[in-house]
Amino acid sequence: xxxxxxxxxxxxxxxxxxxxxxxxxxxxxxxxxxxxxxxxxxxxxxxxxxxxxxxxxxxxxxxxxxxxxxxxxxxxxxxxxxxxxxxxxxxxxxxxxxxxxxxxxxxxxxxxxxxxxxxxxxxxxxxxxxxxxxxxxxxxxxxxxxxxxxxxxxxxxxxxxxxxxxxxxxxxxxxxxxxxxxxxxxxxxxxxxxxxxxxxxxxxxxxxxxxxxxxxxxxxxxxxxxxxxxxxxxxxxxxxxxx
Length: 243
Description:
The chain is mainly alpha-helical. 74% of the residues lie in helices and 0% in strands. Helix 7 (117-126) runs antiparallel to helix 8 (131-142).
């Protein structure tokens, strides 16, 4: 790790400041982040929504399960952005074995249930450890920061839910007078399929917008933890002062 090559200034931060640093990094690298992420996410969302013919509840569940796998593309771009590098979808495709196929089974199962995956995801993906060394490292990074990881997950879950509710409310606000859907209409079994598809579509839109910021906030907390554990801020300044 060439700490002096990082494009961000490291210093000890509070958990909130660290999460904000990650969000600002995502904003600064938004063209790369969203360009690469949506190139992967949009085809996947189309496939998930097409599963509606198999079961009406399946699209929403499939998108929910896919989030940790989609996070890997976002994290790949953010890690490069931290060093001032731009990323294209072609760069992601060339690194597809590392980004998409590495740790595939655990990404879709065990880590989907992790409430602090935004914090521990960089350890699994970026540090190249295996076995007992990986488990020990995850515990070390998570120690004292588990609550921060939980808060990041909770905050962005609320943001996601708010966006879904806002999208669904458009159907009420934009429907002509006298044609607004009512509770009895929504609860009518004959309309359940339409309602569930609209909810799945709104959820896909929310995930497309929120997920990069969620991953970035956890990445910021992760970088702050590395500063605490390894004094990256001091090393950065010394290397820049004495190249």
